[in-house]
Design goal:
The chain is of the alpha+beta class. It has helices spanning 15-25, 64-71, 87-96; strands at 5-11, 29-30, 34-36, 41-47, 52-58, 76-84, 108-109, 115-119, 129-133. Strand 3 and strand 4 (41-47) form a beta hairpin. Bound molecules: cobalt (II) ion. One of its GO terms (biological process) is L-methylmalonyl-CoA metabolic process.
Length: 134
């Protein structure tokens, strides 16, 4: 069912420092910061030949990434995003197999303007999974 790895998201306490690390130390191509208040994050996209990395910094006090950073103050891998062809069909199939979808279970528009859903990490090897409609 899942397709390409769309991105790996890394939560960071200092977006400017993390961006400089990817740009200057690792030599990657990085975007300008993009504020996404609806998702509670500011994001920088790191473009790699076969996927991308998203550096996430909390935006606002109710950011889910802020809670993650309380437990992981130095930052860390926050989620993996896999592409699916039809997000509603994917959600229905996963629910039928007992997987838990976070929030109200309805797809929302994600950082790339496409519908996304998040799946409970306890159902997927301890890793938060984002599905994005390709
Ligand atoms: Co993501």
């Amino acid at each position: 069912m899942i397709g390409r790895l769309n991105h790996v998201a890394i939560a960071v306490p200092d977006l400017e420092l993390a961006t400089a690390t990817y740009r200057d130390t690792l030599g990657a191509s990085v975007s300008e910061p993009l504020a996404l208040p609806g998702h509670g994050v500011t994001v920088v996209f790191v473009e790699l030949p076969n996927t991308r990395i998203e550096l996430l910094q909390p935006l606002g006090k109710d950011s889910p990434v802020a809670r993650f950073l309380e437990k992981n103050p130095a930052g860390g891998m926050h989620h993996l995003c896999y592409e699916v062809d039809d997000i509603r069909a994917a959600a229905a199939g996963l629910k039928a197999k007992g997987a838990r979808i976070l929030g109200d279970g309805e797809p929302r528009i994600g950082a790339h303007g496409r519908p996304v859903l998040f799946l409970h990490p306890k159902d997927f090897c301890g890793t938060l999974i984002e599905l994005e409609q390709a």
